[in-house]
Amino acid sequence: MEEKQERILKELSRARLNEEAVNVEKIHFYKTDRRVNPKQEDPFWFSIGEVPVLVSAPHAVRHYRQKKIKMSDQFTGSIAYLLNRLTGCHAIAVTKLYGGDPNVDNPCIYKEKIIDFCSKEKIKFVLDIHGAAREREFDVDLGTNKEKNLLGKMEILETLEQNFQGFGLSKISLDYFAASGPNTVANYVARELGIPAVQIEINKQYRVPAQNPQGFHRLLGALAESIKSLA
Questions:
Q1: For the chain, which domains are there?
Q2: Is pTM, for the whole model, over 0.90?
Q3: How far apart are CA 108 and CA 162, in angstroms?
Q4: Which DSSP string do the residues of 159-211 spell out, in sequence order?
Q5: How far is CA 16 from CA 10, 22, 146, in A?
Q6: Residues 74, 76: Cα–Cα separation, whole Å
Q7: Which of 43, 65, 118, 226 is most buried by a 10 A CB count?
Q8: Is the C-alpha dihedral spanning 31, 11, 167, 81 positive or negative?
Q9: Cα Rg of the chain (Å, integer)
Q10: pLDDT digits over 74-119, tens only?
């Protein structure tokens, strides 16, 4: 690992962002089966930033799919929250169980919020964060719908790969989860809004900040440096 990455990791560790992630998860992304009415209670958290990159975490809490409650992608919401603070990117995440699945539904109130966000803030790139099981053989999977969602901007993929490798997340796969469903957040953003998007699946070993703080900080460092480069 190079000197720059080592310095960034020390700064993240000194700031105890792994501990902050645990607190953020408890406050904003707690896990419950209590369903809310989205017309009465806003089920989303979002924060406006300064750089034209949007980080999305649609499965930060439990969600419905085919009338069944599905488990959350733990700490993806907290990652979006911390990246907003670290980089000045825009961020959006689901905070409450509202009866839908933002990565499948059409029509979709989460995507409607993203449309509004992107039009007002002139977003140039969307990073959609998800969680993968620990037994997967990759550290991160970069879903680009066979590069279609990059809209010709291959430098996005190159930047992500370089930063993940630089921070020691060397097991990178491409389109393991093909993100080929027409209504995934990444596909929708690229197709309907004309904004390049990547769906990132993060292995759970890097999403347990209390048990693996160093791995969590490496993940945050790679994502933060990627956002700064792409902005």
A1: 3-230 (3.40.630.40)
A2: yes
A3: 34
A4: HHHHHHHHTT---EEESSS---STTSHHHHIIIII---EEEEEEEGGGS-TTT
A5: 10, 10, 37
A6: 6
A7: 226
A8: positive
A9: 16
A10: 999 999 999 999 999 999 999 999 999 999 999 999 999 999 989 8
